[in-house]
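Dock beta-D-glucopyranose; give full complex structure.
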Amino acid sequence: MLDHRTRMDRAKKEKVEQILSEFRLQEEDLKTIMYRMQKEMDRGLKLETHEEASVKMLPTYVRSTPEGSEVGDFLSLDLGGTNFRVMLVKVGEGEEGQWKVKTKHQMYSIPEDAMTGTAEMLFDYISECISDFLDKHQMKHKKLPLGFTFSFPVRHEDLDKGILLNWTKGFKASGAEGNNIVGLLRDAIKRRGDFEMDVVAMVNDTVATMVSCYYEDHRCEVGMIVGTGCNACYMEELQNVELVEGDEGRMCVNTEWGAFGESGELDEFLLEYDRVVDETSLNPNQQLYEKIIGGKYMGEIVRLVLLKLVNENLLFNGEASEKLKARGSFETRFISQIESDPGDRKQIYNILTSFGLMSSITDCDIVRMACESVSTRAAQMCSAGLAGVINRMRKSRCEETMKITVGVDGSVYKLHPSFKDRFHATVRQLTPGCDITFLQSEEGSGRGAALISAVACKMACMMGQ
Ligand code: BGC
């Protein structure tokens, strides 16, 4: 006979499972999401439908025909997450093509007021960081070529010119949207006046990741980020990129798939928690797909689920702590830590204690179940997007079996203990006839930007600029 307590705990867990079952996606659901994503991708590429498409499919001006590259020192900037990074990268030529080595780098945290003040404040802060970096390494006198990894939706006119369509991921600096970002950077450097830079390329982090992996594996024609935000790029036939003239070869397209769902494509899959996350975000009704997957939001979804379970009297004896009630307090890294618990629940218990919560064994198990539901859904949602991209590529290349490599970066992908495995398994399930290799990128943002700049410098030289 089970004792009373054990029976109660079992009944509780069953009720919790029922509440969490909303997060479960069937294969049919994933296929529906994948087809809708493909439809939006198609609309994003076409001139006629581009404006209204939720997935913008932005041309990057990074092309498939390698022109060779300059060698030497390049400065890379990386803006897009919670930190801003400056990096010095040496690009050289080896027998197997270009190599790149990061020689020096420095991370700067971005103060809240720089993220949400004016664009001038943000770019002044960025140029202050560059100046500090150059001082530290006694390089103020050098006018280096600079590659800027700027991880937001940008409509490019060329590799070194593009306007920011909208901020994402908690950035909100006014006066940047609709403006040329390279121009804002150049102006800020000029305003400071204590160093000079030759800004040659601006790239998205997905693009930098893909390019940095390409040098290790020439089959790498897709780049993906699952970090604070979520996005992918891939090499598309230029003839399908209607926004750019020309028919020969391929161009890298930044899908900006994070915006998927803005035209209602995800409506029947959005849960009450997703709606609250969206409504309380800095960009309501935008980036709905990203808000299901990205690390900026995943912890907050879990927090809302935990509060719901408390309200239903299924967790923490029906009482939440003040800290758990505070918006944004449950960071996504806690999900990784909780799901990494080896089974003795110590790690889970400690995290909950730091939230001022007295937790029983059952509470620890329930919190873990909530984390697993949210992170598994994120991995599956993300799989549907990538499968959409890869199936599209296979179709346009008319290959029986397409061998392809995907370069990946981002904290959720790298640090969560099982996101990767669940993600890989679901992508493979949805892409018959494709042989996919996943390549984890190391410092892809900085190195990729340097390599793209090196190619751009060579092009400029060849054209006598
Ligand atoms: C941005 C993308 C970026 C992604 C990953 C999204 O919020 O819109 O441009 O690639 O985050 O950093």
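Observed: The CA atoms of residues 161 and 182 lie 6 Å apart.
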